[in-house]
Design brief:
mainly alpha; 0% strand; 81 residues; disordered N terminus
Length: 81
Amino acid sequence: MLKQPGKRVKSENAPKHNYRVNCTQSRPTSAKAPEAYYRVGVIYMSQNDMDDAKAYLVRVVESYPDSESAAAAQDRLDEIG
């Protein structure tokens, strides 16, 4: 399941990550949402948290299939397996 707003992440990316999660959850129709979800997924990959990475990347592919981020997200999902 996707992380809830305000949940802490151990990383130098945590402030950006938390901002992106909050923004995407409060503005899921924003033109920037696909890229934000993609970046959160990549942050989780860098932390070896593949379950959460998959959740965010799948959301990009399923919710924003025509976005540029969808192809990149699918590539990352293929890497994860």
